[in-house]
Each structure stands twice: as C-alpha cells, then as structure tokens.
Design goal:
The protein is an alpha+beta fold and 105 residues long. The protein has one domain. It is built from 4 helices and 5 strands, in the order E-H-H-E-E-H-E-E-H. It has a 3-stranded antiparallel beta sheet with strand order 1-5-4. The two termini are 25 Å apart. 7% of the residues are buried.
C-alpha cells in the first residue's frame, strides 16, 4: 500500500553509503541510487511549522490536502499514511500471528 516514509538526513546518508559500499556492480549501484534519489525529497516546513509533502509523493500515497493522515513510528523513521488507507494497514499488520515473548503488547 502506498506510504510516505520519512527518514532523517543521517539515515538517508546511511542508506546511500550502504549502496555505495555494497558489492553490487556499478550498474546495479546506479539503479539503486537513481531509485533512492527519485523517491526521496528534502523535507521542508511552512511558516506554521507544518510538514510539506511534495505533491507527487502525496498523490502516490493517496494523501489529500486537508485530509486525515496517520503517523506510524517505525524504529528509526516514521511513515505517513492517508487516513483512509490506515485501517487496512492496521488490519494486515495485526492479523499476523505474533509471539509476544517480550510481553509488551
């Protein structure tokens, strides 16, 4: 399901370094780097400190202007989901069998 993933600049650089330091061929590295660059944008905020999502990324994720969104923390990054898609995402993620051996849920 389409989503906007939000990484820190450090995490983006880490992903970049992982590609560049991999044992992939130069051609494969180029493909990875092109895709990473195409799917990534520098975040900005407006004068009201609202996060601005580039139009192409928001349209791809089904996020509408003034529409509801859900932020989901994912360890070292977070995701922005269109509110209308999140119930399905939640259903999928919570329907999987999960052995809570840490007893945190």
């Amino acid at each position: 399901m389409p989503v906007v993933k939000v990484f820190s600049e450090d995490l983006y650089k880490e992903k970049e370094a992982r590609v560049l330091n991999s044992d992939k061929t130069p051609k494969e590295k180029g493909k990875y780097m092109e895709r990473l660059a195409m799917l990534s944008r520098k975040a900005s905020f407006n004068e009201q400190s609202k996060l601005l999502i580039p139009k192409d990324l928001s349209e791809h994720a089904g996020i509408e202007a003034e529409g509801e969104v859900v932020l989901a923390g994912r360890s070292s990054y977070f995701e922005i989901w269109a509110g209308k898609h999140f119930p399905e995402v939640l259903r999928i993620e919570t329907s999987e069998e999960f052995d809570d051996d840490l007893d945190i849920f």
